[in-house]
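Researcher: Structure prediction, please.
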Amino acid sequence: MARWLVVGANGQLGHDLMEVLPAAGHEAVGMDLPEIDITDADSVAAALDSELGPFDVVVNAAAYTAVDAAESDEATALKVNGDGPAVLAAAVAARPGMRLVQVSTDYVFDGTATEPYAEDAPMAPASAYGRTKAAGETAVLEALPDRGYVVRTAWLYGANGANFVKTMLRLADQRETLAVVDDQRGQPTWSRDLAVAIEALVSSGAPAGVYHGTSSGETTWFGFTREIFRLAGLDPERVEPTTTEAFPRPAPRPAYSVLGHERWATVGLPAIRGWDAALAEALPLIMAAEQS
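Model: Predicted structure follows.
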């Protein structure tokens, strides 16, 4: 058993961590703004040294995730996604034995690959959001070479918060047909599966470093949506393919953001299961949560 601090506990992944960790036998303390401000060293120190501690593991699930807004306000995104993890890492480094998990993203790559990105592939972010998340990764790994984990995820969805699955279900009630991008490939990942993977990774004593926390397999947003419709008892033919060019956005989207999972095998842990199997289990829970 370990005592975990989940920073960003009100978010999608944070919610699931707060359920998964106690179920695995740990003590879990959740904090979010205003209880902790990761950009403020005094706030972080107060949280880490509070009577709720001492903590064995800190998970930073807090982030500036407005990908398009970051293009015109990179300074704010960098404060949260780059400076925040740096502040957390410095605080953890000053407390012997404490470990930090930094949640990152596929956006640290440019999306031009044709095969899954390895954990040690060079970062080459093409967007402001990606640059700020890359800065956070670098800060954690430099400050905590032996106690810092970076877990990159992508296409995250879950029962809490806004996400693609909920948006598609809502639009299914509003429109007869949906045009969905079919030229971006990635790995839809259930936030609960990611929470389970993070717990298993840290509890196993696996070496610090970079791991890819995405579902196995790959699909496009179009393929993902068709499977959402099918599992929800809707006609998948209502979903029609379109291109990224048809939906211009301020921030460039990676055309190929499939992440490789080789490092899980090297530390003796299974990679996250296939995205379609996860969706089949997750969707009824998401639909029930939306109706409650």
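Model: The chain has a mean pLDDT of 97.
Researcher: Thanks, that helps.
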